[in-house]
Amino acid sequence: MRDKFKLAVCQLTVVDDKTVNLKQARAMIKAAAQTGGQVVVLPEMFNCPHENKSFPVYAETFPNGETIQMLKEAAREEKIYLIGGSIPERDRERLYNTSFVFSPSGELLGRHRKIHLFDVQLASGLSFRESDTLAPGNTLTVVETEYCPIGVVICYDLRFPELLRLMALLGAQVIVVPAAFNMTTGPAHWEVLLRMRAVDNQVYVVGASPARNEAASYVAYGHSLVVEPWGRVIASADEKEQIILAEIDLEHLHRVREELPLLKHRRTDLYQLSLTF
Prior knowledge:
Elements: E1 4-11, H1 18-34, E2 39-41, H2 55-58, H3 66-78, E3 81-83, E4 87-91, E5 94-102, E6 108-113, E7 119-121, E8 127-129, E9 142-143, E10 150-152, H4 161-169, E11 174-178, H5 185-201, E12 204-208, E13 225-227, E14 233-236, E15 242-249, H6 250-259
Parallel strand pairs: 1-2, 2-3, 10-11, 11-12
Antiparallel strand pairs: 1-15, 3-5, 4-5, 5-6, 7-8, 9-10, 12-13, 13-14
């Protein structure tokens, strides 16, 4: 495995038109690869508006969906690892919020279905119930790449530290979080959660948000960012559409773990985490 590689996040504007979204996503993937991105990440629900009524309309079935085919071809044509944000996926009678991960040869490496559904009623008046439309996934996702193992979680999954700790214990050195935090939770929690998960697990954590679209019914916060294992933000966006690029330095990750060996210092004689599936 290589010690260093470049990772790019495409913070794109999502509109109520799949054709437009896919065209822009493809253009940004190409641009990200041309600027040196060897692993490219898209945001949550990048092919459709983030609203329950849109999920069934935009949903696709693996492997023949239009978006899924675009991701596969883009990974192969640009010779990159592509973490395809997430899209609504239809599997028989159920819909999932799913991230598809492809290799530089176009091979499907993994599929993460969002485990924790965002069912909330915030004091700001925002109410959202993903479970009205979506079903929860039930698998933990860590994929092998030529650089390092990469974990994938989606948005609300980030708030559950047990999940990301398990991924680190399974070998993940980078954890990617396609997400669409809103204008209430974003300013309050987005950066602090991403930085804390990086510090907790001594991994690189990547938050990939859509750009802010004030005309949308659900307005994403934006501010995609990459955090290194000591908790420092090494690449960040504002609210606008853009690509950010960061160098992932695995030697640095190993130094942090050697100097502050918190994963080794866990008292597994007193407590431990385990998978139940």
